[in-house]
Every structure is written in structure tokens, then in C-alpha cells.
TrEMBL record:
It is found in: Cell membrane; Cytoplasm. The chain holds residues 97 to 397 of 399 of the full protein. This is Signal recognition particle receptor FtsY. GTP binds at residues 109-116, 191-195, 253-256. It comes from the Bacteria. Part of the signal recognition particle protein translocation system, which is composed of SRP and FtsY. It catalyses: GTP + H2O = GDP + phosphate + H(+). Keywords: Cell membrane, Cytoplasm, GTP-binding, Hydrolase, Membrane, Nucleotide-binding, Receptor, Transmembrane, Transmembrane helix. Belongs to the GTP-binding SRP family. FtsY subfamily. One of its GO terms (biological process) is SRP-dependent cotranslational protein targeting to membrane. It is a peripheral membrane protein. Residues 274-287 form the SRP54-type proteins GTP-binding domain. GO terms for cellular component: cytoplasm; plasma membrane.
């Protein structure tokens, strides 16, 4: 079983340290609060958690560690929000004219966060579900990006549509989705560019990619890829991308590394959309659906 972010991250350490006490005094609460804030949980969620725990644990000493643990688990789970719908829109659809069209998943995010890797790993997951998948290399700015996507395509056995270097990203996305429709493919995954030096440029580009795709098929998911190890930086990126496209789900990558865990809660709050997938390594099978209960249990293990 893969190691989920949890054990030994800052969030986990803070919570477990609290549980290890048989008497909790004011200093302990302060320390606890501080650890949670540095765990990327954020000030708001930390305050809520601490207040809830203080009330429910009656402040003065926890007599029963098992009971304390249960309370902690419940309160943390509330923050991670198990009620969010985390299903991925990957079922082919039908247009108003009754034509079958593939589900289209746009994958967006800043370069280096793990977009291309996520596209490859997600293709693998879908192929394992017996879906016909096609990849579109709409990051035409970097030749290496399309090459990297092709490597993933051959690794997982799915075709890749790419354009000439510097081609219009929207036209490549259009071609990919059109090819997917003609080939009766189930899902088209579109990898996009993520250079941030020109926010307006990015905004125009991603907006156009989406509009052009939608001449053929609706976009079922816009997945924003965020690197969990970058902490607050991820939040800044989330804000920018939210302005650019309607993000429907978050992919948190590198949760296998030095990520502090609490970012899951913050980023969901910031965007109001769920973390749907998590990246747990660089390998082809290192992508998992995000499961709130599993996450909380890993943090508390
Ligand atoms: P892109 O520029 O956003 O397309 O990012 P890439 O897909 O090229 O990934 C950037 C780097 O992060 C590569 O070295 C990947 O192998 C690595 N990477 C991606 N996802 C994960 C993950 O979940 N865990 C780890 N440890 N590394 C990852």
C-alpha cells in the first residue's frame, strides 16, 4: 500500500503531539495552534479546529485518549469535507444533435507542478477502466512538453495529437477533440501550457482553448494541478487560475514528498471545489482518488 501524505507531516505531528498529552494546558494549545498554522492548514481552519477541540475536550485535560482521538478525527474530517462530490466527469456525452462526443478533461496549472505527469497517470487509470483515451498536447510553447506527453502516451498505450512547434494551442486542442469524436474515443485529456509570466496571455489562451474545444464537445472537467509542496504558492496560483477558467477539481501532486498536508483544506476553501486526485510519486501508478476519510486516517496514524 502506498504511503499517503500524512505520517510525519507537519499537520500529523501537531495532531499526534496533542493526542500524546494526558493533560492539555494553555501552553499546549498555543503550541498546537502554531504547528497547525505552519502545516499549511491556514489561520481560519486552524482557529476553527482549535475552538472546536477546546470546547469538545473541555480544555482541562483529556482523560480518555481514545475519545480525544475520535473528536479530533471528526473535527478534522469536517474541515476536509467528506460531502464534496469528488467524482470525475469522464463519461462520453451526447450533443443536442444526438452526436456522441468524448468527455473532455482540460488539465491546467503552472509549469512544473506535474500537469503532464498527471495527464499520463490519469490516462493509465482510465485505460484500466477500459476506456478509450486520447491525449492532446496543447502546450505548444515548449517542444519538450509535447515530447514528454508522447512518452507518456506510449508508456500507457494511448495516442497523442500534437501540433507543430508554436502552433496555436487552441487549434491543437480542437484537432485532438475532433479526432476523439471521429474515433469514438471515450475521454480526451488536454494538456495545456502554464507559463505565468503573462497572466493576461495565459487567460486569453486557456479561455480560447476551452471555447474552441466546446465547438465540438463540452469540457467535462477542468482540473487544476497544484504542487502540494509549494504551500501558500499553490493558493496564489489557485486564485489566478480561478479567474482564467472554471476549475472543477484540484489535483494535488507531490503529496508523497515534503508536503505539509494541511494545504488540502486551504485550497478547497479557497476555490470552493474539491481535491479530486492526488499525486503520490513520479511513477505511472502514482495517482489516486482523494478520499477524505483515508486522508484523515493517514494524518492521524
Ligand atoms: P508540468 O510542467 O506541470 O507538466 O510538470 P511535469 O509533469 O513535467 O512534472 C514536473 C516534475 O514533477 C517531474 O519531475 C515529475 O516527475 C514530478 N512529479 C509530478 N507529479 C509528482 C508526484 O505526485 N510526486 C512526485 N514526487 N513528483 C511528481
Amino acid at each position: 500500500r502506498r504511503r499517503l501524505a500524512g505520517q510525519d507531516n507537519a499537520l500529523s505531528r501537531g495532531l499526534l503531539a496533542l493526542l500524546a498529552k494526558d493533560r492539555i494546558d494553555a501552553d499546549t494549545w498555543d503550541e498546537f495552534e502554531e504547528t497547525l498554522i505552519t502545516s499549511d492548514l491556514g489561520v481560519g481552519p486552524t482557529t476553527e479546529l482549535v475552538e472546536a477541540l477546546r470546547t469538545r475536550l473541555k480544555v482541562d485535560g483529556v482523560s480518555d485518549p481514545a475519545a480525544a482521538r475520535a473528536v479530533l478525527r471528526e473535527e478534522l474530517l469536517k474541515l476536509v469535507d467528506p460531502t464534496m462530490d469528488r467524482t470525475l466527469g469522464t463519461e462520453p456525452g451526447t450533443t443536442a444533435d444526438g452526436e456522441r462526443v468524448p468527455a473532455v478533461v482540460m488539465v491546467v496549472g503552472v509549469n512544473g507542478t506535474g500537469k503532464t505527469t498527471t495527464v499520463g497517470k490519469l490516462a493509465r487509470v482510465l485505460v484500466a477502466e477500459d476506456k478509450d483515451v486520447l491525449l492532446g498536447a496543447a502546450d505548444t510553447f515548449r517542444a519538450a512538453a509535447a515530447d514528454q506527453l508522447e512518452t507518456w502516451g506510449s508508456r500507457v498505450g494511448v495516442p497523442v495529437v500534437r501540433g507543430a512547434e508554436q502552433a496555436d494551442p487552441a487549434s491543437v486542442a480542437f484537432d485532438a477533440v475532433r479526432a476523439g469524436k471521429e474515433g469514438e474515443v471515450d475521454v480526451v485529456l488536454v494538456d495545456t501550457a502554464g507559463r505565468l509570466h503573462s497572466k493576461t496571455g495565459l487567460m486569453d489562451e486557456l479561455g480560447k482553448v476551452k471555447r474552441v474545444i466546446e465547438r465540438t464537445a463540452p469540457v467535462s472537467e477542468v482540473l487544476l494541478v497544484l504542487d502540494a509542496t509549494t504551500g501558500q504558492n499553490g493558493l496564489v496560483q489557485a486564485r489566478i487560475f480561478r479567474e482564467v477558467v472554471d476549475v472543477s477539481g484540484i489535483v494535488l501532486t507531490k503529496l508523497d514528498g515534503s508536503a505539509k498536508g494541511g494545504i488540502v483544506v486551504q485550497v478547497q476553501r479557497e476555490l470552493g471545489v474539491p481535491v479530486k486526485l492526488i499525486g503520490l510519486g513520479e511513477g505511472v501508478d502514482d495517482l489516486a482518488p482523494f478520499d477524505a476519510e483515508e486522508f484523515v486516517d493517514a494524518v492521524l496514524s
